[in-house]
């Protein structure tokens, strides 16, 4: 396939388009391999800034993971007392960027709204640690959380795996590992515009090229870092690229959301279709005019607010809260 | 990709971010954003609640970006009135932040344009806007010219003035949102005499070509100054091309940067720079400025060192003229 065979991407939502013009001053559409190291050094919000104005306690724990000690951040309400929802959070950043605080605001809203306990994993990043290091770390964090549920104030029957972008792909891969290794039972998987398909060959992957956030070229950069020479070959597991899975039965109820004006649109819609074809339970939201991670980058926008509301509504219905 | 660096959030309370405010509201206006989106933009950039009360609609957006029923009391907040009636306000507690004035000005302008566009009397888009919109189809522009009773074989000009002008329009006119702010465009016969305090006068063109007249008139207006308050597109020649250059894309070592530094250091230097660029010799410049020749001589030396080129040479004067024009295009803004 090539770009000339396709219509242009759907237009950005008007409010998001205005925001994107400013966001693109700092966030280029295309991330190339030579930008990985410099961008890692860019300043991010401090923990104090993230927690400002919230009645939330943070602490860290470490345990033995598959590649040495694994660090997790735990967030809970100051007044948390009854064991309830536990969320294992796998952060985004294209498999190459970010830390356990990336995209954490969405999780902190759930801590406040649902009295959830969030366990956010500092998994190893590619390219220094290629597949399967990231997803193995995420699965180890799920197992650790399930084993320590009572101590952490979590009801093991209300365990959720959740993540956005690369974190959405890792959440989907972790859910598949839990299924195939008879690991901890999950109550739900929340896949926020997940990065699922190393082949990068959908219509949306061609439509978003040199525009928006995390475009076709960025996606190549992320997958190349994770998979190296194995990319696009038969030697890629369903845990690294969940779109490769043909049988998505026996998985926890899934929630998937994605914007129409982003690279992951078509692979995310296809993943939902495969879940349904496998007799599974999935709620899919496709938001018109959304660019990648618009809810995080422009949280005030009407589409972002509606997106966050839909996630909370699904969690309440699915977990019986 | 959920990195935090590019997140769009409230502006710095201390630092002025005029361009960001303007480009944000210009983009919303260009996309025909509704009133809630505009008010939410004000609220988001200011980091506090904001609201609008007008004959056609009233609403308030809280600091989280959500519609709120809680009615604010506009009287006690910093506010701007809208041209069609009504008020927009920011619910700022404590001292004003650096960008509050600019946010209010831009949201008030955007809301005024919106209400004018969507008000009952102006249910349809002003045909002048359609006629002068380069992104419109030829058919739409033809229809607009027809509805304005323009004759296809007659030549017209577009006259641009700051939207704040109090001169009554003689021909069909519209307030346009432009890179240089709110500008009134008026269509007159190419042979009409023009009387205006500050204006850009576009090249003569047939109705089908009035977009070109409009663009030249806009550039001319942006290049006007106190000592040249009225400029003709016809007189600008290749200088019209400068308006197509984006300063953001200019190379870092171009004269615009060093000129910007000089002007920031000494804002009152501009008349001297204009005179140096326009004069045949330092002696002529000294005569125009009413300074002694040696004073101008030493200032010219000093400026040459700061600018990185010699303003006493012919090439230096050309570079200075071009850099001044670019600087003016970048900084001129009409309310």
Automatic annotation (TrEMBL), chain A:
Pfam families according to UniProt: Abhydrolase_3
UniProt key word ATP-binding: no
This protein's UniProt keywords: Hydrolase
UniProt keyword Hydrolase present: yes
Top-level division of the source organism's lineage: Bacteria
Domain called Alpha/beta hydrolase fold-3: residue spans: 87-294
Recorded GO MF terms: hydrolase activity
InterPro entries listed in its UniProt record: AB_hydrolase_3, AB_hydrolase_fold, GDXG_lipolytic_enzyme
UniProt protein name: Acetyl esterase/lipase
TrEMBL record, chain B:
Pfam family, one: HTH_30
Segments forming domain PucR C-terminal helix-turn-helix: 276-325
Stated name of the protein: PucR-like helix-turn-helix protein
InterPro entries referenced in this protein's UniProt entry, alphabetically: PucR_C-HTH_dom (IPR025736), PucR_C-HTH_sf (IPR042070)
Region of interest: Disordered: 62-81
